[in-house]
Amino acid sequence: MPVFQRIGTWCRTRPDSAFVIVLVLLWVVGTGTRGSDRAARPETAMTDGQQVEARGGLVSSPDASLHASVGTPIAPPSSGSPPASPAIAATPPGTPEPTGLLAAAEVENLAPNELGRIPILEYHDFTTDPTQEDQWTRTIDDFRADLQWLYDHNFYIVPLRDIVVDQISAPPGKHPAALTFDDGTVGQFRFLPQPDGSLQVDPNSAVGVLEDMFAAHPDFGRGGHFAVLPFNCFDVPDEPDQEPYCREKLQWFIAHGYEIGNHTDGHTDLLDVDDERFKATIAGAVAWIEEHVPDADWDILTMPFGNYPDPERHPNQWAWLREGFSFNGRQITLVAALKVGAGPAPSPVSATWDPFMVPRIQAFDEWLARWWAELELEAETLYTSDGNPDTITIPENLPPALEGTFDPTKAAGKRVIEY
Ligand SMILES: [Zn+2]
């Protein structure tokens, strides 16, 4: 049960975002002009708060919270009035000419905003029994409804990895979102043995719901990141008959466009362990994943309990998390670390984006009701794709919550287009 939860603050922006933008789209190749005045504006943090994962009676402790500040509000332009603004130039010499650029009319229609927020939902266990639903357990029916809500609101599921390495391939006009699943519970993925010996994905497990949804809606994208545990290979809490399918499930994930992630080899609380244990528990999970699925990535770490090593007590670990480390002659380098809870993630080109502090939205009734309402009200703050992972398209007139948050250094190698 949860023992610690802090609801983050949220800076509301004006809902009247449906103003018409008159556009002139200019493609300007910059030479040495990286770093527009946007970079000099004060950073705006859009989310705050930290939830700590604490299930199964395990002890948890609060983690350091993030900061929160509110951008200086500005009035949105009146309808139809903004003058055409020049594009900014932030593309270094030698950058390949991107393909698949949107025409100006498409930009106007689709209103891409690749500085916006991205919801990354976080699930643990699943049940078909409504009386068992709580913060850590979602009913299958509610999960199905969550996905339907995302689909109905123009979201598009992308692999988590595409977000953390900023290679988001959502169609133009769609809002990318990612789904994460912690702890390898059986409700996430259950096989039903058939009389002929074959295995069917249980339609009442999360993977079954995902497969149904993706099949019914080819324009919904595809993906799901499963942070597995060697001792919980989709057979807990109480279905040991599923244990023999561990390897097959892991391989099925990779064959079907899902991701496997590192959650340490023992759900180790990394707040205060010695250096050897820190390395061994992360590297142990790497070895286990590689032994089962040699071609799987293992370099996104979901922090058990949401806890990070204390940077003052364990400066080595704090650095290793971001820079990598060697263990038994093996180099282990992570690309991202996931928090527990907090809120929507900033864009990978936002000054507030930190791939080693990726916030997520815990998927239970109270929080989803809150965030669904916020995201619906403030749709202009969402990441809206331009359809091209090699370009970053940002409107000139940003909602206040996003003003000044663009960090051009995080768009290195990409064409930046402002309209
Ligand atoms: Zn966990």
List keywords for this structure.
single chain; 419 residues; alpha/beta; TIM Barrel; two-stranded parallel ribbon; 21% helix; globular; binds zinc ion
Summarize the structure.
With 419 residues, the protein is of the alpha/beta class. Helix content is 21%, strand content 15%.
**CATH superfamily label of the domain at 115-382:** Glycoside hydrolase/deacetylase
> How many β-strand runs?
16
The fold-level CATH name of the domain at 115-382 is TIM Barrel
Average pLDDT, rounded to a whole number, is 82
What hetero molecules are in the model? zinc ion
Total count of helical runs of at least 4 residues: 8
Which architecture of the domain at 115-382 per CATH? Alpha-Beta Barrel
Q: Give the CA-based shape.
A: globular
Sheet of most strands:
8 strands, parallel
The CATH C-level name of the domain at 115-382 is Alpha Beta
Share of residues in helices = 10-25%
Structural class: alpha/beta
Rg from C-alpha positions? 22 Å
Order of helices and strands: HEEEHEHEEEHEHEHEHEEEEHEE
Spans with pLDDT under 50 lasting ≥5 residues? Answer: 1-50, 56-91
